[in-house]
Each structure stands twice: as C-alpha cells, then as structure tokens.
C-alpha cells in the first residue's frame, strides 16, 4: 500500500474588510415647493383714521430721561454720584486744612511761650488764652479728621466704579481689598500707592496691558501720606517720655504733625479735583436747558382737510 500523506493544513480565509458606510437619501432638486419671496410693500402715505384715535402720547412737558421714574435711565450712575460726593469732599478738605494750620499755629505759639519762660515770667492771661487755643484746635482737628477721611474713602470707592463704567472694564481689585489697603495701619503706608495709581490709570483711559505709572501729583500725595503717618506714630510714642525737654520736643512734633495733616488735606483736594474733572469734565451748573423760541425758514406743514363725518 502506498504511504498515506497527511492532508495539508487549511489556512483561514481572510475576511473582507468591512467599511462603515452611511447612506443618506436626499430629495432631488425640485421635489419640494420653493418658498415665495416676500414682496416689498410700497409706502402708501401716513395712516388715516375715520375718527380721531383714542390713543396718543401723554400731555407732559419735555424732561430729562433720568427724571422719569420706573425706567432704567432713572438709576443714579456712578458718575452722577461722584459729582455729588466731590462737591462735599472738597469744602471739607479745605476746611480741615485751615483748621490743621490753626492747630499748628497754636502749638508754635505754645513753644514760643516755653522759650520765653526760661528767662522771664509769663502773663497768666496769655498762658490761659494759649492753652485754650491749643485745646480747642487740637480737639476739633482730632474729631473732625474722621469726616474728611470717611468722605475721601467713599469718594475713592465711587471713583473706581465710575472709572470702570467709563472704560467698560471690571475694577482690578475688590472693595474689601481697597479698604484693607487704605485703612489698616502700617500696611497702608505702601499698598495705598498701587490703589491710587490704578485709579489714575483707569481715569486716564489707559489699557490694562500697560503698567500703571503714577504721576508726580500722586507721588507727592503718597510722600505726604507716609510723612503724616510717621509723625503721628512718633507723637504717640513720644507721649510716654518724661521730662521738660521731652514735653517741649513733643510740642514741636505735634506742630509738625498738624502741618503734615494740612498738607495732606491740600494735596488730597487737588488730587480729588483733578480725577473728578477727568471723570466728569462738564459740571451741571454749566449745562443749560435748550428751549425752542422760534423757527425761521421752515416750510409750512401739509394740512389735511377734516372729513365731515368725523366726530370730535
């Protein structure tokens, strides 16, 4: 018998590649009715009514849109609020500057009397008047310093919002950060400069990509601000010293502190006036309401005859 040959191994047949095919059926052109294009209507003149219509505009005098209640334009904007606050801040700052100068003059007078008392006796009436002057101006300056400080901080917050509304951008810092950088002692010596510089940057309509560069007025204001706080802290520490010479030196330090406070009030008033003028350049007192007195050279309006069937 011939040898039995093993059967050859059967190779698996390769499966044909299956491609995912998506059949999309679309109607042939012209199967759907085409939409008709709207025909432009011709103007046939103003509307006419067989009788006078019952509707119409209210019989009101023309007035500003902001005076209409219940409308969005009736809301007070930050720019309008800034004008009101500025009119209150500037007189208070100038008044405080005059009061601080009076307090400094009273302290200088007291120091002159101290120098004169080394060689001769002083009059009781002069010393009494000097002490009364020092106590009165000192108390008024200390108590009334809270009013310009609070109004200036309020003006700062409103001015930041007005500058942001004018530029259409969001303020770079939140209000609590601004209050912390301005009111917290020691911290406000350095961080108050970026706050004022950012406000000036926004008031001058500069882009956010450029770095704020404080002007000379802002740098002078910051220098007087730091000097005022340093002198105030030195006066508080000097009060704990004893001795005649320490009391005399304390009088000089108080006089210098009052002069620094007066200078700070003056520079702050100039800064507020400059930035408020850039944000709201036109004062309300300079605006005049326009009124039509007469019209010359205008053609007569076309008058239509009233139908006989119309009812009054």
How would you describe this structure to a colleague?
This protein has seven helices and no strands. By secondary structure, the chain is mostly helical. It is elongated and about 115 Å long. The termini are far apart. The mean pLDDT is 80.
| Major pleated sheet | none
Structural class: mainly alpha
Please state the overall shape, judged from the principal axes of the Cα atoms.
elongated
> Which blocks of ≥5 consecutive residues have pLDDT under 50?
none
Q: What is the helical fraction, as a range of percent?
A: 40-55%
Number of extended strands: 0
SSE ordering: HHHHHHH
The quaternary organization reads as single chain
Mean pLDDT: 80
What is the straight-line distance between the termini? Answer: 134 Å
Q: Which radius of gyration do the C-alpha atoms yield?
A: 40 Å
Count of runs of 4 or more consecutive helical residues: 7
Strand content: under 5%
Layout: helices, strands, pairs:
Elements: H1 78-116, H2 124-144, H3 146-167, H4 175-183, H5 188-203, H6 216-238, H7 244-279
Helix pairs in contact: 1-2, 1-3, 1-7, 3-5, 3-7, 4-5, 5-6, 6-7
Provide a quick synopsis of the model:
It is built from 7 helices and no strands. The chain has 312 residues and is mainly α.
Task: Provide the descriptors you would attach to this structure in a database record.
mainly alpha; 53% helix; 312 residues
């Amino acid at each position: 018998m011939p040898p039995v040959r093993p059967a050859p191994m059967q190779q698996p047949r390769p499966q044909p590649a299956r491609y995912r095919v998506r059949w999309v059926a679309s109607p042939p052109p012209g199967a759907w009715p085409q939409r008709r294009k709207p025909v432009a209507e011709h103007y046939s003149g103003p509307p006419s009514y067989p009788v006078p219509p019952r509707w119409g505009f209210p019989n009101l005098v023309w007035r500003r849109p902001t005076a209409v209640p219940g409308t969005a334009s009736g809301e007070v904007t930050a720019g309008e609020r800034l004008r009101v606050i500025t009119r209150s801040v500037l007189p208070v700052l100038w008044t405080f500057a005059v009061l601080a100068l009076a307090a400094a003059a009273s302290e200088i007078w007291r120091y002159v009397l101290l120098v004169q008392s080394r060689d001769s006796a002083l009059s009781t009436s002069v010393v009494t008047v000097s002490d009364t002057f020092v106590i009165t101006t000192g108390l008024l300056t200390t108590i009334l310093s809270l009013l310009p400080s609070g109004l200036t901080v309020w003006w700062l917050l409103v001015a930041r919002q007005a500058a942001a509304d004018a530029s259409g951008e969001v303020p770079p810092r939140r209000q609590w950060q601004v209050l912390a950088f301005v009111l917290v002692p020691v911290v406000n010596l350095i961080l108050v400069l970026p706050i004022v510089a950012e406000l000036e940057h926004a008031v001058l309509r500069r882009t956010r990509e450029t770095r704020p560069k404080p002007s000379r007025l802002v740098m002078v204001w910051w220098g007087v601000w730091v000097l005022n706080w340093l002198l105030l802290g030195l006066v508080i520490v000097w009060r704990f010293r004893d001795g005649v010479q320490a009391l005399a030196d304390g009088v000089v330090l108080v006089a210098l502190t009052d002069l620094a406070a007066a200078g700070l009030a003056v520079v702050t008033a100039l800064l507020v006036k400059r930035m408020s003028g850039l944000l709201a350049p036109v004062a309300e007192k300079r605006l005049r309401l326009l009124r039509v007195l007469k019209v010359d050279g205008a053609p007569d309006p076309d008058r239509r005859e009233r139908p006989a069937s119309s009812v009054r």
